[in-house]
């Protein structure tokens, strides 16, 4: 493959939006996923992917190639953008690792600590020259609205990124600098803790349980679910998150709660209207809990447990999430213990995230 090519893995809204966006940018996009014949046929039958919202294309945009063959899509690729939900990270890492090679850069969107899984799989295959990085949040908020149609709710803008280990972050930034404006987070933990979804998704879903179960597919969190009481809860989550950031010497990025107050000011900030219109969650089992409770919230609570930081609201939210869905998101989540990083001092943890080594080891 040429340096002008980028492989996009996935077939959901983010993958389709990214494939169309990169094609518009003049890149040869190879779109790859398992057993997505119908989704890919929809794209072919429609002549491509049609973008709506802030980046309306009018006419369809057709990727260079679509395939379910990971060897074909990944084997000769230099840049791979992984756009799948967290519950598919292990599956995709297992499919990519046999064909990973030195000099490749994988960027995961949204990150959700997926870089840890990819690096683990690459190292087990002896592939230590591969860069795995992840974004803070997603390339852009988006939804599939029809066959091969995707609504982009906000523009593709500047994004924070961190590699695992963080000493490779600049490599990831440089690999994609012709198409994305990436800026370095200190490491994947600083990035994950700054995800806006940590602050709003779990709290917003649990405090709207009745509305979600009554409205189903018609529920839109940013239209139907934002209230002053919910934002007080989100503010408490953000304050606990910020305390964990301070204890670990991490930076806090922009306030999610401030953005939610703008979102709730429905007579103003018209540039937020597409985002306000996004549907979801339609049930309590969707990624607003299943992904964010098991990734960002589980990480936050495990860091608090490890270093003696009080986070009562976050603990309560993850406990309620466990209860309503009958699944222990903390026990099975991306905690320090489950990622093999417990028992370290703060200094050793941050050095490990930077270099995969610890002081004296």
TrEMBL record:
<dbReference type="InterPro" id="IPR013328">
    <property type="entry name" value="6PGD_dom2"/>
</dbReference>
<dbReference type="InterPro" id="IPR051729">
    <property type="entry name" value="Opine/Lysopine_DH"/>
</dbReference>
<dbReference type="InterPro" id="IPR008927">
    <property type="entry name" value="6-PGluconate_DH-like_C_sf"/>
</dbReference>
<dbReference type="GO" id="GO:0016491">
    <property type="term" value="F:oxidoreductase activity"/>
</dbReference>
<dbReference type="InterPro" id="IPR003421">
    <property type="entry name" value="Opine_DH"/>
</dbReference>
<dbReference type="Pfam" id="PF02317">
    <property type="entry name" value="Octopine_DH"/>
</dbReference>
<protein>
    <submittedName>
        <fullName>NAD/NADP octopine/nopaline dehydrogenase family protein</fullName>
    </submittedName>
</protein>
<dbReference type="InterPro" id="IPR036291">
    <property type="entry name" value="NAD(P)-bd_dom_sf"/>
</dbReference>
<feature type="domain" description="Opine dehydrogenase">
    <location>
        <begin position="185"/>
        <end position="324"/>
    </location>
</feature>
